[in-house]
Amino acid sequence: MDKESDTLGALRREIDKIDTAIHDLLMRRSEVVGRIDAVKKRGSTLPTGMRPGREAKVIRRLIARHRGALPAVVVARLWRELISAFTRLQGALTAAVCAPEMSVGYWDLARAHFGSTTPMALHRSPFVVLREVARGEATVGVLPVPESDDVDPWWPLLAAETENKLKIISRLPFVEDESSRFEDLSAMVVAQMPQDNTDDDRSLIVIAANARISRASINELLQSVALSGRSVTALDRREDRPEWLHLVEVEGYLADNDPKIESLIEGGRGRIRRVVVIGGFANPIRTAGGIQPTASAAE
């Protein structure tokens, strides 16, 4: 055996040792997750072991410390796969995905985030997705991000004056990288659980008004209560909807009972009937397209 082959063989044996060490750590992680699950179930009423805020913090920490030729987006995909698999060990995790035009992009976004083994169902109607999540037939729903030209938007249902447990909890993709996306799409994730506070978030509120309010007036109202944000879209009042509805994205985390919510209503001077926090998301990570390693990963 020549010197070059001997060196390659030694390097491959080193790779085998690393793979064994990684596998040992995965099995150890599984055992720790089992203990975490036992602790969480003693004090939680949530329908799933999924914790979007904790997951976002884990990915952020790993991306921040990552070095080397392996693209950061690959690290994120690996850990998303692990997180979803371990979440399923703790309880239900299924996804209902809305693709209005049967776009493969929304399916890919959901699959990349929730893992290769998570059961998923595809629907053309966002209202079917919301119904499945509300009934507990799906743990999460993946829906197109609201746009100003939506013909029949789904987000007003989250602000309806009825008992509603559905909240927006995430935005996809969480790790944004142009080299890993087939279509330039984004999506919101809804579930029967509240948004988590990760200290780097955005929240979504619906302002229900008695009269039309301009975007400039909304910005002034936000500034008056020390909020920074933007008006995403608005819906005019009509026969079956006795309010003007404004969807607003604000920087930071807002709880349902945040004092700023009541201050917004008071600042409206009779124009605002109610303000509803419909959830939010951890701010996505943006990474530059990484350079692929030149050596074969199989070697």
Q: What report would you give on this structure?
A:
The protein is α/β, with parallel strands linked by helices. The chain folds into 3 domains: 33 residues; 107 residues, D-Maltodextrin-Binding Protein, domain 2 (3-Layer(aba) Sandwich); 82 residues, 2-Layer Sandwich (Alpha-Beta Plaits). It contains 7 helices and 11 strands. The chain has a 5-stranded mixed β-sheet, sandwiched between helices. Strands 8-9-7-10 form a 4-stranded antiparallel β-sheet. A two-stranded parallel ribbon has the order 5-11. Strand 8 and strand 9 form a beta hairpin. The longest helix is centred in the first third of the chain and has 41 residues. The protein is elongated and about 85 Å long. The chain starts with a helix and ends in a 13-residue tail after the last strand. The C terminus is likely disordered.
